[in-house]
Specification:
Elements: H1 2-5, E1 23-26, E2 43-47, E3 52-61, E4 67-78, E5 84-86, H2 93-96, E6 97-99, E7 103-106, E8 110-119, E9 127-137, E10 140-150, E11 158-166, E12 170-177, E13 186-193, E14 196-205, E15 215-221, E16 229-239, E17 243-253, H3 256-288
Length: about 290
């Protein structure tokens, strides 16, 4: 549910034209940042520990029947593959959100604006605290992202770990966000074999939002990897704020199928040669005794 719900920096997907469904979005003109002409794509809040921040969400019911929805706060998280998800139990931003009304009834063809507060605890750590507001009703869930930044020193830092070549056609690696800000990683990969470069991919932005403190395992496809070579692979990941790290591994490519067939042929040839020599030796030995 979380991955479909949390399209980072946005709201749930719009309903189809055939059957309009209710939606939730940031209330226009509320919050600490002004709305654009098309409305805010997410809720942004910023304050120091101890601050109480106020905002609103708008739940729109375009159907012909009244609607009841239940609102809750949630913490954002990364799945192992880097996609965004929601934690089952809120302990951070989601737990700091309080609604003026959690259970809301919206009449047909009506929009309801629901005030809420984000109370930043006195001991909250500085940096990004990603979360979401989730609405449940009418047999479905929808939500909007909450980007909360707690005032104080920020650090952008990451590490690249456990680089390995998988199945001869892809490169897997771990990226860990060691700082307290959300990072958008950029990846560069280089591989050098015995006779020079066999792979050189310049830095490009990955479709990943790496949240503070999270570890993800990513895979880079490598079609056309060498069939026979010893290769040094270097993975470099960078992000805004000066975050950067590299890690390397060595991979040996051996065409075991071809090699196995060649060894079988050699083994067969060796057996034939041994049989030939042994047969002729036995014939000579019998000839010498007559």
């Amino acid at each position: 549910m979380g991955a479909a719900l949390l399209m980072w920096g946005g709201t749930a997907a719009p309903a189809t034209a055939a059957q309009p469904q209710w939606t939730i979005a940031p209330s226009a003109g509320a919050g600490t940042r002004p709305a654009t002409d098309d409305g805010r794509p997410y809720i942004y809040a910023e304050g120091t520990p101890g601050t109480v921040l106020e905002d609103k969400v708008a739940v729109t019911n375009p159907t012909k029947k009244p609607l009841r929805v239940t609102l809750r706060g949630a913490d954002a998280d990364n799945r192992t593959d880097g996609t965004l998800d929601l934690r089952n139990k809120a302990k951070d931003t989601g737990a700091w959100i309080t609604f003026a009304e959690k259970n809301v009834k919206i009449p047909a063809r009506t929009r309801a604006e629901v005030p809420f507060t984000v109370t930043v605890p006195a001991g909250a750590t500085p940096g990004d605290h990603p979360g979401a507001i989730v609405a449940s009703g009418g047999g479905r869930d929808a939500g909007v992202s909450v980007r909360l930044r707690v005032g104080g020193p920020t650090l952008a830092a990451l590490t690249v770990e456990h680089v390995r070549v998988k199945d001869g056609d892809s490169i897997a690696y771990d990226v860990v966000n060691r700082g307290n800000t959300t990072l958008t990683p950029r990846l560069a990969v280089r591989a050098d074999g015995v006779f020079g470069s066999v792979l050189d991919r310049r830095a490009r932005t990955l479709p990943v939002e790496l949240l503070p403190g999270r570890r993800v395992t990513l895979t880079e496809p490598w079609p056309g990897a060498p069939a026979l070579d010893s290769v040094d692979v270097k993975v470099t990941v960078t992000a805004g704020g000066g975050a950067a790290d590299s890690a390397t591994t060595t991979a040996r490519f051996v065409p075991w199928g071809v090699l196995g067939g060649a060894l079988a042929v050699l083994a067969g040839a060796g057996c034939a040669a041994y049989w030939y020599v042994r047969t002729h030796r036995d014939r000579r030995d019998r000839g010498g005794t007559t």
